[in-house]
């Protein structure tokens, strides 16, 4: 494993990984199959690798499409490039997924354990060209965003909006332990299947239920949440976050975002960042309006594996 971690640092220097992170996302993933970790060796030393994982097992607590396959990470050492190694690695990975019954393969966008949402084509243009030659096509382009918090204070209009919603009977604040079943079910059933598990794992691992901010309507129904520190315990990583479809348009998303940013700042965070949103979605526009800036754009690609 150490050799593969070193390969990542050499092959994609903007995105190194630690041993623990690699182990968690690859070796300890419930859907891990050793045959899907494909390594190219030259002179007894690894010079490239790719990790492929299939959804047919349906293992783990985060649901994945049983028809799908994912390439979650891979690279070739710069000194070993232009020899067809990357092409052969991806071809073998696609064959592994096809033989396992997958109908399609994504480059990243693997919900249980992704390193990056997709390929950063600006930083790794050769990778994009390789994948496109092998039949991958762009699905969508999520963006990462960052916001400095060193001088952050909640904007007065947001504070007024929060007060107005509270007057109407909405509550917004840090989760108590007995809020967790409601917010986990809400996140998984109304927003994204993996978000409830993200909340559960965060509290189990790091013991900080107060890093989940919840919103209930006047009837006590859970209608929104935001969290931070949920992934790898990184306190400056914001999200996931969302509001019930039936309660959108009331400014609850804006309130949740800023209440959470204020709590992050109170813990000493100097920035807030996340890896994945659509720049033209309501959430993306909300982030931009709050002062976030786009720092990276990723390309999620898919190749068909069946006729």
UniProtKB/TrEMBL annotation:
Keywords: Acyltransferase, Transferase. It comes from Jiangella asiatica. Residues 1-159, 170-307 form the N-acetyltransferase domain. The keyword Transferase applies. Gene3D superfamilies: 3.40.630.30. It comes from the Bacteria. One of its GO terms (molecular function) is acyltransferase activity, transferring groups other than amino-acyl groups. Pfam families: Acetyltransf_1 (PF00583). This is N-acetyltransferase. The keyword Transferase applies.
């Amino acid at each position: 494993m150490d050799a593969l971690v070193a390969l990542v640092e050499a092959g994609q220097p903007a995105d190194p990984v630690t041993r623990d992170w690699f182990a968690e996302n690859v070796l300890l993933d419930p859907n891990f199959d050793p045959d899907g970790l494909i390594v190219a060796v030259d002179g007894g030393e690894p010079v490239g690798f790719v990790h492929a994982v299939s959804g047919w097992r349906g293992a783990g607590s985060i649901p994945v499409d049983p028809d799908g396959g994912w390439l979650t990470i891979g690279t070739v050492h710069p000194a070993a490039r232009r020899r067809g190694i990357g092409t052969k690695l991806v071809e073998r990975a696609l064959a592994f997924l096809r033989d396992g019954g997958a109908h399609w393969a994504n480059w990243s966008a693997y919900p249980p354990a992704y390193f990056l949402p997709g390929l950063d084509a600006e930083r790794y243009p050769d990778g994009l060209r390789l994948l496109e030659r092998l039949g991958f096509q762009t699905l969508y382009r999520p963006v990462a965003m960052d916001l400095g918090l060193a001088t952050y204070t909640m904007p007065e209009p947001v504070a007024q909006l929060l007060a107005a919603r509270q007057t109407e009977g909405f509550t917004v604040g840090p989760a108590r332990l007995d809020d967790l079943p409601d917010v986990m079910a809400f996140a998984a059933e109304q927003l994204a299947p993996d978000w409830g598990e993200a909340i559960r794992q965060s509290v189990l691992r790091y013991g900080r239920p107060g890093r989940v901010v919840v919103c209930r309507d006047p009837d006590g129904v859970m209608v929104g949440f935001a969290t931070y520190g949920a992934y790898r315990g990184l306190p400056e990583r914001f999200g996931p976050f969302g509001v019930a479809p039936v309660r959108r348009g009331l400014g609850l998303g804006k309130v949740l975002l800023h209440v959470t940013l204020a709590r992050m700042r109170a813990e000493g965070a100097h920035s807030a960042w996340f890896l994945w949103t659509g720049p033209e979605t309501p959430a993306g526009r909300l982030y931009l309006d709050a002062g976030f800036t786009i720092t990276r754009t990723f390309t999620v690609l898919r190749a068909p594996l069946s006729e």
